[in-house]
């Protein structure tokens, strides 16, 4: 057996710098994966740096899981390469790649105890039993699994506990990369949030390189150093969470991460990064928005703005110039904020988010006329294509 | 909303009246107990009485006969060999089923189920053709290697094993696959990602998780093999005589009911000993309850809740795994599965060309074609009568199984009787599967002899109904378990009576399972030889009996024609069932 292919075992101190943050650990080069006639992943390329938490985010069927399974070696890409630490591993079987995988339903072996599950990869690497036991205990302590549970079967554990065991099992052999396929999807919301933070702290402390797959945008935002938003087997945008949220490159990304209000507009005039636009089909003009992301040749675009960036003016001030006239349709109280649904230009429903103690909105009810405005740099013009 | 109280509590009142929790329960057991008493318990007592009629004298005769002792030992050896072969080949086939694409899986499943549904006589006849001196194998060998190149495949252990494995392999594959298909593929992937290669993954994940299925299948194969009669009689040689044949000889040649009963007691004792031994690890009634719960229960019993075992042989096994992993196992398994699939189909296929031969001997492929054998069989009044007898007896047996099985199935699935009572009832209802047919046949023969029921068609059908009952029960119970009780409650809340609900809601929705159960029950009777031979006379003789006599007199292509016609009946039944399925699917 090729022992060299299995990564050597080293107890991580958690302190040692594993090299500069810019070192590329895993590279996917022009990868295409097909199932029969269906192209699941199309010419995808990206790099993940050592110690980075990289998330593949997208709706179901976007190819994110296929990408992960191709990296793990369970799918053979139709074209392209998977590089690990500079070595081409595209044709290596999964057991020779040394990547830890946490599966969606955990895939714990039902006939083995927690300890046996966690020691499994160590047994496969011929680690002597004393070392293996010690190592398994350490990792289980790391993921905060109660010691009384070490000898129980997975079926007797709760979902959260199973998740911890799955994580421990995937980390115990110190894999080069940790691949996680929607590991929290089966848990309830509150537990998911707790585990998200624990996972993030653990990853930061151990400087583990993680590739994470999820369809939950909030989870992606909480956990990731960088997020690749996927659709139809391609990336729509790859960027850090804040950049994705604040400067989405297109309407799909804007809509997939958080909520956004949209309005099709015609560009009337550009001035540097700002443009004056007019709603399509409307006579009035003078709306302002940032055109950073809009190719200069395009004359029509989609104006996109987050609900919390829209300002709302009521009563007398609703008649003033600037912004856009609207009619309130519904006001909902959601504890930490109010959500006001309005209709602008008789056609488009826009949502506005304001603090619940916002004075001006206290009197609002269905049918009230309001005026919506925004800072030009908060509204972004995106390509319609 | 008005505060009018509900007229009945939803939990209880919504059950059809015939299976109402308390009153209906004993009532639904009455036909079952009556049937079991008449054709299982009384016959067993009768032959046991014969075995001890002269105290222990017949037993000392038995012990003094080396031929009989040898026969018992040989039977155990043959059953063990069959089981071993079935375990190895069964893992290959089930593995191929697991690895196959959905389309291939459907094909492979059909191939394993089809022989399951066809008469052992037909299949044995097919093997006689294939393995015979003038069969395709020997003719091919002579073609390649000259006149002396033939091999003897028939009337020896090779022929016997071929036939036995062909009959028993489905009994091993189906329970094994039922368990294996429940093992999530993710577990294999997890094992691979954690550093185990393909062989290690099989040894440490698939194998331990499928042990309950393999054990269930293995025990079924072993105990069933102990009672084999048709296959050793037609495919085996002088050195392959099994206990069933010895019992048959005592009955037909020596007409010694006492010696036959002694041998039957030994055979039954061996079977019960194996079953009892096995029940320590795995409840036998779970063989048929192949849902996840049962499997988990069985697994827990099989594997216990051992504490973490320290693995000391890790190194050796790892090296072995690595060495074995050089073979392309996935390919080997798939090819093996394909070969076995052909093996399943071969004896069924071969009877078709033989039935169309123009010659009067078995020659494959036939030298000339004609329909003369069909003409002869269809025109022969004795074959006609046998066919009609089979259809009538089969129909009565199916009706009896239905009348006994349906209330029982409802009671077992729906009523709140304790699991222990349910377990006992299930064991009793399915015990006929474990009792060797020759033992059953001897018991029924001796009991009917005393009661002057020999030649009685109804009595024969009742005996065969016991064989169909387990299949009907299992299939209908599975269908009832899948049935959503809320639909009945909805119907009741909308104003339908219990009887109307049963007629309009319950029966239409479980009818697919009922039809499948009826088909299985019918085929059990239609293909049954031993009881029919023991208790029928010239007027009530069924098709298998007539075929058996034909096969013993002279192996002529006429039997192939009968086999093809008999296969036709089976396929017709399966096709009709598929038709029921399709109509069901078209409903919204």
Any overview of this molecule?
The complex is a heterodimer of chains A (385) and B (588). The N and C termini of chain A lie far apart (52 Å). In chain A, strand 4 (79-84) and strand 5 (87-88) form a beta hairpin. Chain A is built from eight helices and 20 strands. Chain A is an alpha+beta fold and 385 residues long. Chain B has helices at residues 10-13, 24-51, 57-63, 66-99, 102-117, 120-131, 136-145, 157-180, 185-193, 198-226, 230-235, 243-252, 257-279, 292-303, 314-324, 329-355, 372-379, 381-414, 419-434, 437-451, 457-482, 485-493, 498-526, 530-535, 543-553, 557-586. The longest helix of chain B has 34 residues, at 66-99.
Brief rundown of the structure:
The complex is a heterodimer of chains A (385) and B (588). Chain A has 385 residues and is of the alpha+beta class.
What's the topology here?
The complex is a heterodimer of chains A (385) and B (588).
Chain A: E1 24-35, E2 38-49, E3 53-57, H1 64-72, E4 79-84, E5 87-88, E6 99-102, H2 114-124, H3 129-142, H4 159-171, E7 177-181, H5 189-206, E8 210-214, H6 217-223, E9 226-231, E10 234-239, H7 241-246, H8 251-256, E11 261-271, E12 274-279, E13 287-290, E14 300-305, E15 311-314, E16 324-333, E17 338-344, E18 348-354, E19 369-373, E20 380-382
Parallel strand pairs in A: 3-8, 3-9, 6-7, 7-8
Antiparallel strand pairs in A: 1-2, 1-4, 4-5, 9-10, 11-12, 11-14, 12-13, 14-20, 15-19, 16-17, 16-19, 17-18
Helix pairs in contact in A: 2-3, 2-4, 3-4
Chain B: H1 10-13, H2 24-51, H3 57-63, H4 66-99, H5 102-117, H6 120-131, H7 136-145, H8 157-180, H9 185-193, H10 198-226, H11 230-235, H12 243-252, H13 257-279, H14 292-303, H15 314-324, H16 329-355, H17 372-379, H18 381-414, H19 419-434, H20 437-451, H21 457-482, H22 485-493, H23 498-526, H24 530-535, H25 543-553, H26 557-586
Helix pairs in contact in B: 2-13, 2-18, 2-20, 2-21, 3-13, 4-5, 4-8, 4-10, 4-16, 5-8, 5-16, 6-8, 6-16, 6-26, 8-10, 9-10, 10-13, 10-14, 12-13, 13-20, 16-26, 17-26, 18-21, 18-23, 18-25, 19-21, 21-23, 22-23, 23-26
